[in-house]
Amino acid sequence: MPITLIVRDESTSGDTLHEFALEVLTERITVRELIRSRVYQEVHDYNRQQPPVFRGLVQPTDAEATLNGYTVRKARTIDWKKQFDKAVDAFESNGILILVGNRQVESLDEEIIVRPDKPVTFLRLTPLVGG
Question: How many helices (H) and strands (E) does the chain have?
Fold first, then answer.
């Protein structure tokens, strides 16, 4: 039975930039699986609907940053694997921080317990450009 997790993107000043629900299949997942699930879902949603603005963790190549996401210059399919690889690289180089509740996770292999009342916060410390 899927578990719904609240995911937030926040600025370093603490402002919530974007918040959404993410369904995961198990109660325990690694940070790597969390990033994969998040990136896969946001890219899948974009590719299916092709809205003018992509709201995701990683800025697609040839996209322009806007207040509410990234404007993709010409409609195209985004490669979720490239986006995922860029997000993992950013996590490993401290380009993004991930907080589960109020605790910072430090390793891609760290296991977290998914709870609807414990949001996951992504803080982007540097712009992330990928697939």
Answer: 2, 12
